[in-house]
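Hi support team,

I submitted a single chain yesterday and got back a structure, but I'm not sure I'm reading the token output correctly. Could someone confirm the output below corresponds to the sequence I sent? I've pasted both exactly as they appear in my results page.

Thanks,
R.
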Amino acid sequence: MRLLTCLIAAALSAAPAVHAERLTLDRLHADPALSGPGVRALRVSPDGERVTFLRGRSDNQFQLDLWEYNMKDKTTHRLVDSKKLVPTENLSLEEKARRERMRTASLSGILSYSWSPDGKQLLVPIAGDLYLVNAANPDQARKVASGNVTDPKISPKGRYVSFVRDQNLVVIDLASGQERQLTTDGKDTIHNGEAEFVAQEEMDQKTGYYWAPDDSAIAYRRFDEAQVPVARRFEIFADRTEVIDQRYPAAGDPNVLIDLMIVDPASGKQKKVDLGAEKDIYLVRADWSADGKTLVYQRQSRDQKRLDLVAVDATTLAQRPLLTETSKTWVALHDDLRFLSKQKAFIWASERTGRNHLYLYDLNGKLLRALSSGEWGVDNILAVDEDAGKVYIASNKDALTDKQTYALNLDGSNAAKPVRVTKADGWHDTTFARNGKIFVETFSDPKTPPQVAIRRADGTMVEWLEHNEVKGDHPFAKYMPDLLPTEYGTIKAKDGQDMVYAMIKPAGFDASKRYPVFLTVYGGPHSQQVTRGWGNMFKQYMAQQGFVVFTLDNRGSSRRERKFTDVIYGELGRHEVEDQVAGIDWLAKQGFVDPKRIGVFGWSYGGFMTLRLLAAASDKIAAGVSVAPVTDWALYDTHYTEQFMGSTPKSNPQAYQQSGVFAHLDGLKSPLLLVHGMADDNVLFTNTTRMIDALVNRNVQFELMTYPGAKHGISSRAGQRHVYGLIEAFMKKNLKPGQQ
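Hi R., thanks for writing in. Yes, this is the structure output for that exact sequence:
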């Protein structure tokens, strides 16, 4: 369960507006976006002549068009208008479910695209159809496929377009225009070229097939979900109720049976890779060597304590193990396998030292050297420039709250002291050109909205892509003077480890007064809440309403060392609650906090945390809002739950009982607002109906809001505006009575 981004971001800068205004909820959820003209899906074209990106429309920030910045004439213009390409979108149920998995359910228009290898064409999927767009003359967009097309790609050499349609893998030979369906058995419980539910949801698998770099073959996942139990659930809409039979593998249930296949796109000839005698495994990733002769797959044991990296000869199917990672808790997954083209070696990331670092191996799996080392960790690889002997990485090496770009040497000579490429303190997301010579940087900090610049590999400026200065008619200009600063600090956990917090003090802050607290919590793995980047405006809004807004990253949160994350193993909730209570105790000692008016709000894992916090500390928490909570981990999926629980409900029922909510409910005394979408296919609505039943049986009064047709993110524009208004009203009623 990865963190949901459910709030609308806004922007600020240093230029004050003439007439200051306070934020309103209506404005937070209106157009244009307060953060200014944001960009996403940044790409540098293969020929280096263009930087392309997706941008929301001025009249609908969630409808995305494709734009380009031309490096030669230094102009920015819209390349493809999504409304002209497809005036009205009609999405299939499969596409809607896929967007929910991808956290893009609130978006429309062009959600993804890819470049042809020669940089002359772009592949643009929209609403189930597939278009090839001439980069020099985008009005010549040509529909090449239609009818529930998903996961389209241009092959590495540009000969083919590939995609999945109706559970089968399809290719189009661009020279002849001939379409070939490479698989034919995809139907019912058989899927080809797709990633199964838990792979999409928990293993960050956005695709189920993998092109060889020379276009000679495609490796693909084939899975049968017949043995996965059917979860019959109701999706309740405003005007109807639909009964959905979803194959949902809850903790301890059977997973899909998975195969790894290799197919020749020209002939359709198939081969099956032997994944071993043990069938109850996870196929984590598949990659190709630089010469296309070797397929390398990652096989993880069901208990997730072992991961094998295995090489397969694509011609003979002979296999050889390259390396094995083991852990007493769980082996974390990553995308940082890189095969080098100029030397017979590959880069691999491992947390074997307790922190994530990079290592160089030869093609037989012999360790050559460490590329990074020390009391810090690598987030991920951004690019490899073999000619320059550089590996570019993202890391929080200089500050836990920051993300910076650094350069490592392939010879390992600066493993402990990488060169920092990005300069300003704060949050940098960077996208490199394929050759590693330039990158596009998106930078923000609490006082700076997202700014996008094109830079050389050493960090020197080439050109602004989006300076996004808050002045003149910028959407946030008139709200700038009332922006409240974000303060950062650390609190000690029970075991002495530092936990980082962020705090926004209320408007008109007076240290002699005591203020209510709006504590926002997530608390689960795969998430970092406290970052020195541009924050969400709902927190700013609540601070402007007179609340101290406080967020703490407890043990188990991401981008930290394994000593910090592994604390939660075996029993979810206990240590996380302990840490958040430590934060509440710290707040209560601050002279400007009213300890009797502390409220908690959380969504998803944060919804679970809200319930557990109220159950553990209603004497310290005056009210709580729990949105889409897990209430019983036996109801959540296999890969996520078993990874952190280290067991199944059958093998260790006591651990599951203690990790859930129901064993602790006798302590829940404070006012509660419970919220859930009535068509949630991630944290099933059953979690909340069971919670309702348990509270009723205990005669515990609470408030309830359910959203017809809403998925896990309650992502519609109206739904977002309503739920945050509901949260505000509940907090004011319980923490600021008489001041609503």
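A quick pointer for reading it: The first helix runs from residue 25 to 28. Let us know if anything else looks off.

Best,
Support desk
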